[in-house]
Amino acid sequence: MSPRATTQEPVQEFYSIGEVCDLTDLKPHVLRYWESQFKFLSPAKNRSGNRVYQRREVELIQLVKHLLYTEKYTIEGARQKVDEHRRKGEIRGVARAALELQTIAAVERELQDILEVLDGGARRE
């Protein structure tokens, strides 16, 4: 058995703003704006002054994105919804569920793109 098969990949705990943008498909200015609107989004800064996001903050960002873009909440409505989830002690589960929904939607879009490519290739033959 290879060493790789017996050890797990380390889970990344901290992310740069660029990595968060890649993970969430959001622009840096959107993340910075959300930080001003949602007090629970306050990433630490490293010695260079760059934002450093923890994994839980990335999950919260995904939740906010889901509430704003999918559920169509206003900023204030999303803020209240997150506070409600936090009071009920269900924030982590709800944030992870939002992440799963967005992951599924992204996979569906990619599969649709693949189907379109395959369908276009079939017509040419």
Entry summary:
The protein has 125 residues and is mainly alpha-helical. The protein has six helices and three strands; from the N terminus they run H-E-H-H-E-E-H-H-H. The model is unreliable at 1-10 (pLDDT under 50).
How would you describe this structure to a colleague?
The protein is mainly alpha-helical and 125 residues long. The chain has a single domain, classed as Multidrug-efflux Transporter Regulator, Chain: A, Domain 2 (Orthogonal Bundle), CATH 1.10.1660.10. Helix content is 68%, strand content 7%. The protein has six helices and three strands, in the order αβααββααα. The chain has helices at 3-6, 17-24, 28-37, 55-70, 75-87, 91-124; strands at residues 14-16, 44-45, 51-54. Strands 1-3-2 form a three-stranded antiparallel beta sheet. A hairpin with a 5-residue loop joins strand 2 (44-45) and strand 3 (51-54). Helix 4 (55-70) crosses helix 5 and helix 4 crosses helix 6. The termini are far apart. Residues 1-10 have low confidence and may be disordered.
Q: Topology of this protein?
A:
Elements: H1 3-6, E1 14-16, H2 17-24, H3 28-37, E2 44-45, E3 51-54, H4 55-70, H5 75-87, H6 91-124
Antiparallel strand pairs: 1-3, 2-3
Helix pairs in contact: 4-5, 4-6
